[in-house]
Amino acid sequence: MKAKIMIIEDEINICNFVSTTLQAHHYETCKFLKGKKALDYLQSNAVDLILLDLGLPDIDGIDILKYVKGHTTIPIIIISARTDEKQKVEALDLGADDYITKPFGTEELLARIRTTFRHFDHLNPSHYHYKELLIDFDKRRITLADKDIHLTQIEYKLVSLLAKNAGKVLTYDFIIKQIWGPYAPDDNQILRVNMANIRRKLETNPADPQYIFTEVGVGYRMAEPQ
Length: 226
Fold this sequence. Notes:
alpha/beta, four-stranded antiparallel sheet
């Protein structure tokens, strides 16, 4: 499956050149000359990486960076003519995965993309295994004591999100935004209902869980494999 890369760049010649280059190297691309349209696209479409120019005509790239990193786990490489070191440090501190200064060469860009994907893959393992629970993320398969567990699409997304962040407490708000989108109502009830259903399927005793724990008033945490 081709990785899909979003290009947010207001200089049309650069945008088209980068897109053509990436397509020639077997990436799928989507192009945006303005930031707000790119953000609108992200509400209902998935991408694997974003190439982001900071100097956009309608919204500052830093604001896009803050928004995307606050609501998603999509890696972002900054591509900018801004050479000020403070701005570069600010972007990296806000979660940018890399920073390339214009002008840049094709090989440098491709190398940075490959490095970012390798790092991201390292943070996204193919399996989760703890006690009798095994999750194969590539096959979207969950087994418990070697028996298949059937979850709804939303339930699988919840378990997968928690398992890929095993050991970390994920807040209610973070989970809701990740699963139902950034404009989802700030209502924990739908999350609690789904979590209760998941526990009935995964836990021998939902009142004394082995796999998914509630951090009261904060969120949920998946047991970290030993």
